[in-house]
Amino acid sequence: MLLEIENLSVEFETASGPFRAVDGVSMKVHEGEVLAIVGESGSGKSVSMLAVMGLLPWTAKVRADKMLFQGRDLLGLDASARRKLVGKDMAMIFQEPMASLNPCFTVGFQIEEVLRVHLGLDRKARRARAIELLDAVGIPDPASRLSAYPHQMSGGQCQRVMIAVAIACNPKLLIADEPTTALDVTIQKQILDLLMRLQAEHGMGLIMITHNMGVVAETADRVVVQYKGKKMEEADVLSLFENPQHPYTKALLAALPENATGDRLPTVSAAAFEEVLQ
C-alpha cells in the first residue's frame, strides 16, 4: 500500500469559530495507481492532500486515525523527517504554476535546488539532470531555458516546469492539483498526456485532483467523490460512470455539458443537495 488515510479531518479557526474543511475522509492509493478526487470548489479536495503533504499552516488542526505512506506514520514525523520525504518520495503539482514558481529565481535554479537538497548532486550533475527533466516534459531547447525566469515563459511552459520539479527525484507518489487550470484546451491535453506518460514510465502512484469529469474518465483507475469536506462515494472509474450510487455523484454526472437540453446547461439540483445533507 502506497498511501492509506483513515478518518482524516482538518479544522481551521475563523472569526466565527472553528471550520471543518475536511471531515472524516478515508482513501487508499496503491503503487502505480491513478486515483481521482473530484468535487466542486470548496469540497476539501486540495486541503486533504495538503494535509498529507504537511503543507497546511501550523494553525490548522489535522487529525486522522491513520495516515500512512508506505507504512510510515505521516502524523508522527518531525519537521526534519518530513522535509526529507516531501519533494523526494512525495511530490505535488500545485494549481497555479505562475504563483508556485519563485519569480526571483531562474527555472534552472528551482529545479536544481530539489536535486541538491534531496539527492546531493554536484553542480555539473544537477545541470545535466535539469536539462534532462526539461526535455522530458517537452520544453524546447532545454539547455537555454534553464536561465529563463518564470515570467519569461507561458502558463503551459510554467506548468511543465512545475512537473519537472515534482518528478525530479522520481517520487513514488505524485499529487496533481487541478494541473490543467487556466490552460487552453490544446495545452490541457498535452499536460494530461505528459502526466500519464510519466506515471506509466516511472510506475508512480498518481492522485489527480479535479472537478473535470472528462479528465477523470480519461485518466483514473478509481475515483473518490467529495462534497463539503466529506467523502460521498468511492468506486472504480467504470462503475462510477455506469452506475453511480450516491445522489451527489448522480447529480454531478447529470450536470455534464453533454447532458444539456435546449439552451440551458444542466446544474446540480437542489434536491440532490438536500439528499446529501440528510
From TrEMBL:
One Pfam family, please name it: ABC_tran
What keywords are annotated for this sequence in UniProt?
ATP-binding, Cell membrane, Membrane, Nucleotide-binding, Transport
Write out the annotated subcellular location: Cell inner membrane
Q: Where are the transmembrane segments?
A: none
Instruction: Give the InterPro entries listed for this entry.
Output: AAA+_ATPase, ABC_Ni/Peptide_Import, ABC_transporter-like_ATP-bd, ABC_transporter-like_CS, Oligopep_ABC_C, P-loop_NTPase
How does the entry describe its membrane topology? Answer: Peripheral membrane protein
- Residue ranges annotated for the ABC transporter domain, each copy included: 3-253
GO MF term set: ATP binding
- Read off the PANTHER family from this record: DIPEPTIDE TRANSPORT ATP-BINDING PROTEIN DPPD (PTHR43297:SF2), OLIGOPEPTIDE TRANSPORT ATP-BINDING PROTEIN APPD (PTHR43297)
The similarity comment for this entry is:
Belongs to the ABC transporter superfamily.
Protein name per its UniProtKB record: ABC transporter ATP-binding protein
Organism, scientific name: Mesorhizobium liriopis
